[in-house]
Amino acid sequence: MTRVVLAPDSFKGTITAADAAAALAEGWASVEPDAEFVHRPMADGGEGTVAAFAAAVPGAQLVPVTVDGPAGAPIDTAWLLLPPDPAAPGGTAVVDLASTSGIELLDQLRPWDADTTGFGQGIAAALDHGVSRVILGIGSSASTDGGTGMLAALGARFLHAAGAEVARGARGLRDLATVDLDGLRAAPEVRVLTDVNNPLVGPRGAAAVFGPQKGLTSADIEPVDAALARLAELLGLDPALPGSGAAGGTGAALVAWGAVLAPGAGEVATLIGLESAIRGADVVVTGEGSYDGQSGDGKVASFVAALAASAGASPALAAGRIADDADTTLFTACASLTALAGSSEAALADPARWLREAGAALARSR
């Protein structure tokens, strides 16, 4: 009997990691009905982080909350409460930026006005509940506000020269003169899951690298970069700190609050017990929406592949698309949904169907 561990990431905007794992298992079972499946849906701090913990941790509870979304309107979402343990007697909260201030929540980009207020409100709700520890996923950000919206929701004030509060989002950063942290809530133990190590400013910084994805034009990047540098100065932060540029500079704001930045995939894997699940497995199937040249730097697929190989299991990949520059040598077998479906449009239209096909294809490749 083949023991198969299913540890995909979500396929961004199309299917959750848990549903992807279920579809892969169904497809594999159509070829090998006697296979044993262990589901460990993964995340790296972006979309699906809360769902990954919810699927893997017994007793986890979703706690509903309404926050100010990145489009400027209220949204109903949830944070996750993990059961108490000796290190966190009040329980652990998992809050992700994707479901509170994420880019997938926008119908159209708002490069100057989207912000992280909702993320901060989600964190505040968890603190009001009395949790002892907070785990934050900060992928899939909609804004480049330097995390000011988040900190403002936790009690900080960001002021222009006349003493009034600046506007939300990157727009307000341009007018920032002083920062008042006197009312900022105290941080418990806070770990931040991120899949990037970019600094806050410069050619690899938040504005230059990620700003265009959120709608900033080439002419916008320099003033936003300068505003982020000013924010770092006011917060007393090193703008070259690796990871501080994550989520439009939210990484920097969280460091200012007292949080610790950590590689997302590794932290999630530890907290959901992935390594012990892989022990004794024959095959470990991972995946993501697009496996490309950037997927080898701390992303879920490459991380899981290395973990599988070190345990003596065969790593396999199912991806929405596999780019020409992708390093597939990490895997003993690969399946592209785009190739199976005949086009990216067909794959995106019914990802569960093509993940079932991918699972079957990977089983036949054994």
From TrEMBL:
TM spans (from-to): none
GO molecular-function terms, A-Z: kinase activity
Keywords: Kinase, Transferase
Matches recorded under SUPFAM superfamilies: Glycerate kinase I
Coiled coil start-end: none
Keyword Kinase in record: yes
A Pfam cross-reference name: Gly_kinase
Keyword Kinase appears in the UniProt entry: yes
Highest taxon, organism lineage: Bacteria
Family: Belongs to the glycerate kinase type-1 family.
Protein name: Glycerate kinase
Organism: Microbacterium paraoxydans
